[in-house]
Design goal:
Immunoglobulin-like; 404 residues; disordered C terminus; Secreted protein; single chain; alpha+beta; transmembrane; membrane; transmembrane helix; four-stranded antiparallel β-sheet; elongated
């Protein structure tokens, strides 16, 4: 082999490839180093957590609800700083605003536009921050978790993490990170109107007119058996169902009870006095968090309050709730008494009748108890009479043939 030609000619193909590979690696390293210096030095981990219960994904788990605020269900952030991007004397501060840019000194110095939550000087490449949701609410002018704003819609939240050498300067984009995936919603939707209550067996049938709020997701029913006098005059009691007829729901001035069917007539629908009040269910106020609803439905205009005791008079209020569970303020109240209903339909079924039943056999939503409307009772009565006549004919036919 002629080694002279090798010395003055190009190196073998394999060696040329290795040389190019090394050159490419050095160029990539130099480029990466430049990108690191020119890029962001502050970053937020995507694994933001809560200190308490986390709602499912469909219910915006990182939003702030009224319950989150009251129970200190705070946000947990992991912040990373690029190696060599900070020095002794630097600080990392946390700021909150609704709309303004807290990287600007003028906004941080303004009254209320930006609120500082925390500042640290013991910096490291990885830092953990707990941002209290109550402080976020206060920064957005909602102290004590009470939002005075007129809108029930969610409000935007911006949380800034700023690396600063001096508190007097604006902060560049590369020395800051901003979290905007959290919103604050402390207010539930407006309540329904025209609440009326009808009686069922161990339950009350609740009907109302829906509010116009777009964020209404459903309705909670609240029941209180400790009735008190209401200064403004309460709604009339719901008419009790008689032994065959259903009582009518009382209106604001007390509705008359429905006419009785095959049995006794319905009870009086209420006299419209001021006795339909409650010390714990207050119209226009958000229900206390300790209250357990006696019923719940979606975006419907009727539902039932269940698990009640027959013969006991209950005050009933309705509060709408949104998609993260915030209850709105309480509606006007209505009163009713659950009663044991032995309707003609029940007697007919006990005698072996098969007609009726199902959704159409109740007045109100699915599962509305044993509350039978009068027209349906008449229809069932006719079916029962026809069955009884056919049974008599079948029984009489053998006797006629025997004596014929």
């Amino acid at each position: 082999m002629d080694k002279t030609s090798f010395l003055i000619g190009p190196p073998p193909r394999g060696r040329r490839f290795r040389a190019r590979l090394c050159a490419g690696a050095l160029a990539a390293a130099a480029f990466a180093g430049g990108a690191s210096r020119a890029g962001a030095t502050v970053a937020i981990s995507t694994d933001v957590e809560r200190t308490g219960d986390r709602r499912p994904t469909s219910k915006f788990p990182l939003w702030i609800s009224r319950e989150d605020c009251l129970t200190d269900n705070d946000l947990l952030f992991t912040i990373t700083l690029s190696q060599g991007s900070f020095s002794r004397g630097d600080t990392l501060s946390v700021w909150v605003s609704e709309k303004v840019d807290c990287r600007l000194r003028t906004e941080r110095d303004s009254d209320g536009g930006c609120t500082q939550i925390e500042a640290r000087s013991d910096l490291d490449t990885t830092l953990e921050f707990r941002v209290p949701v109550e402080k976020i609410a206060s920064a957005l002018r909602a102290p004590d978790c009470k939002d005075p704003g007129p809108s029930t819609s969610a409000r935007p939240v911006s949380i800034y993490f700023l690396r600063q050498e001096s508190f007097q300067d604006d902060v560049s984009d590369s020395d800051s990170a901003v979290w905007t995936d959290t919103r604050m919603d402390l207010l539930g939707p407006r309540p329904p109107s025209d609440v009326k209550v009808g009686s069922g067996d161990t339950r009350l049938i609740v009907e109302y007119s829906l509010s116009s709020d777009d964020d209404t997701f459903g309705h909670y029913f609240y029941c209180d058996s400790n009735t008190v006098s209401s200064p403004g005059g309460g709604a009339g009691s719901g008419g009790g169902a008689g032994g065959g007829g259903a009582g009518g729901a009382g209106g604001g001035a007390g509705g008359a009870g429905g006419a009785g069917g095959a049995g006794d007539g319905g009870d009086d629908g209420g006299d419209g006095d001021s006795s339909c009040g409650s010390s714990v269910l207050v119209p226009g106020e958000i229900p206390d968090a300790s209250l357990v609803p006696c019923g719940r439905v979606g975006r419907a205009s009727a539902g039932e309050a269940s698990g009640l005791e027959n013969g006991v008079r209950y005050v009933v209020g309705v509060a709408a709730y949104d998609n993260i569970g915030n209850p709105g303020v309480m509606s006007q109240l209505a009163c009713g008494v659950p009663v044991d209903v032995d309707s003609f339909f029940e007697l007919y079924r006990e005698a072996g009748g098969q007609a009726g039943g199902g959704f159409c056999s109740v007045a109100g939503p699915v599962g509305a108890g044993r509350w039978l409307p009068v027209p349906l009772g008449a229809m069932v009565a006719g079916a029962a009479l026809g069955m009884w006549r056919r049974t008599r004919r079948r029984r009489a036919r053998p006797s006629t043939q025997e004596h014929g």
